[in-house]
Specification:
This protein is mostly beta strands and 398 residues long. The protein is 0% helix and 54% strand. The protein contains no helices and 34 strands. A hairpin with a 4-residue loop joins strand 13 and strand 14. The relative contact order is 0.15.
Amino acid sequence: MRRTRRVGYGLLVALLVVPGHGHAVLGDTAPMLSGQVRVLASSSGALQTRRLTDQVPSAVAIDARTGRAFILMYPADGTGPRHILVIATRTGALVHTVALAEPLNAVVAVTTTNRVLVADGRTIRLLDSQTGALLPPIVLACHGIPQGLAAAPLFRRVFVDCGDGSLTTLDAETGVVLHSSNLGGALTIAVHERTGHVLVVGRDINTGRPLVVSMLDAATGGVLHRSYLRRMPHGGAIDARAEHVFAIDGNIIDMIDASTGRIERSVRVSIHPWSLAESTELGRVYVLTGAYFDADSDPNEPGTVSTLDIHTSTIVRSVTPGKAAFEPSPSAIAVDPGTKRVWVLSTDVHRFGGVSVLNADTGAMLYTVHPVRDALPAAIAVDSQAKRVIEADVVLKG
């Protein structure tokens, strides 16, 4: 999921474990930017609170144990310190603000260690998720800028896509570097804790074979197995119950055995997919598609959200989020298993952003929440325990 368009200095980031899509600002003159964070009730979509910010949000991670949301913010003009905004998920109240100097690329919360890890330039910063206190920085031996983080809470591990083709394994409590593997390039990191495996979808530039799924030991970070795909993969998601990992392989969704790392079967979708989310309880995978990312498709064709049945490998339903006449582009997705809702961020060509809510079982569109003019959705996350949805937008003021 490395397709990114820049707005100002930072990135508009799609949810799960790694940075992803954003939206281009239309017009000849770049508008002024600000941010907003909205807290919604997960059962109804009702707005609970709204917080306006001078800085622009890019990513959200939630620690359900402490009831905190950690939101990465960057200055709209690209100068000055970056911040981590910490809010209470239930009320939206500000708990902490943490200032950091370098660009913030990714964030992940590890509930078993009370830690939040942030990629801060070429370093990893650890925060205490209860107090917000910063721990000493962890300097990585990366030749690139870290682009993604994935957590294995049961193993107390965090895996870092270093942006240079290597994957670094960290102790999730201390930040100590445990292992580094040269994989040639990582696009998506998916952790499957039941089998104790980490699957990394990416390019294998070392062997000349460009598309590979590498299976690693979650405890040690060592490479166990590799499988090669047909085309360019763009994302991945986990189905823990069925013991499978799903990877985007061109316009095909591959189902990969999490124990062996081998492809079992595939499902073709009509428009180019670029991101996935899953519901273990319902046996569903949700696929975001967009013609923008497919050179063979009509660029004006609206993006869709397709609901895939894990057990039958069939598409249950495909819907267009938001207003179909405005060619909306879905940009991020989050699943709430408690309310059986799928939350989808989308923006149309008229700079009208909104949140569409789908039935997680049938994939049917239920309603659209508070569409906002000149607000580009940046990130969304669900706290099932607090029964809240945290949604962050970039607001265009010009």
